[in-house]
Structure formats: structure tokens, C-alpha cells
Amino acid sequence: MKERQVPTRSGRTICQVCHISCPLVIVDQGGKTSVYGAISAYGGETVPLYNYLNLLARQARWQTFSYHEMAENAGRCSQATENLAAWISSGTIRHDEHIFVGLGNFVPALRAIYDGRTVGKTVLSVPHLS
């Protein structure tokens, strides 16, 4: 397994291969994992998935979802948003994000995504217009 170390917003580094594969090593019996999007692979370079057989061995669940699925069920999406907000606020789950400020940074943000220079969610923050 070839490692590719990338920095996170918090200053720590993670192995991009392990970002998905290593949690599968420690998934709990009956645990759940989820996957949303794969924009880092849009440029043509894909990262192989390792340790996926632990899902079977530990009777764990790997669930994918997409924007279209969530848009079709607005009530479920609202509940998920409330749950995620509570878990983030309490520190139960953590996330990495890369924030670009202002519309003038749209192109640099998009380039960073496709070049694989971001980890977690990439956010383009623009001021609220009244």
C-alpha cells in the first residue's frame, strides 16, 4: 500500500490511502461507515480501497448516499442535518474542511479540489446578500 501524506486543516497529516482504508481496520462489530462523493477521483487518479473485507468479518455496514437521494427525501435530510450538527457540536464526530473566502477564490478552490490539495470538505464562503 503506497502512502500519500497530505496535511489537514488542523495541521496534522494523514495518509490519503488510509483516510478511507484504515478506519476499516478498526471498525466495530456491527459498526457503520458511510461514503459520500468521490470528487478527489474525478481527475482520473483513484485510490485503491484496502481492508474492505473487515466489513464482512465484523458484520459491519458500508452505506453510500448521494445528493439526489437526499434531495428526494427532505424530511430525512433535515433530521440528518440536525443529528450531524449535534454530533459535531458535542465533539462526537470531527471533520476536516478547507475554506476559501470570497467568490474571487472560486477558481483556486476548484483547482485545489481537482489537484487533490484539499482534505475533507472544501467550502467557498461568500457573504450573505440581503
Description:
The protein has 130 residues and is an alpha/beta fold. It has helices spanning 16-21, 53-57, 67-72, 74-90, 106-114; strands spanning 5-7, 13-15, 32-36, 61-65, 97-101, 121-125. The strands form three sheets. Strands 1-2 form a two-stranded antiparallel ribbon. Helix 5 (106-114) links the parallel strand 5 and strand 6 (121-125). The radius of gyration is 17 Å and the shape is globular. The termini are far apart.
Q: Which SSEs are present, and which pair or pack?
A:
Blueprint: E1 5-7, E2 13-15, H1 16-21, E3 32-36, H2 53-57, E4 61-65, H3 67-72, H4 74-90, E5 97-101, H5 106-114, E6 121-125
Parallel strand pairs: 3-4, 5-6
Antiparallel strand pairs: 1-2
Features:
two-stranded antiparallel ribbon; globular; alpha/beta; two-stranded parallel sheet; single chain; 130 residues
Which class of secondary structure composition applies to the elements?
A: alpha/beta
What Rg is obtained from the alpha carbons, in whole angstroms? 17 Å
Instruction: Note the beta-strand portion.
Output: 15-25%
Principal-axis shape: globular
Helix content: 25-40%
Low-confidence stretches: none
The largest beta-sheet arranges its strands as 1-2
> Whole-number average pLDDT?
76
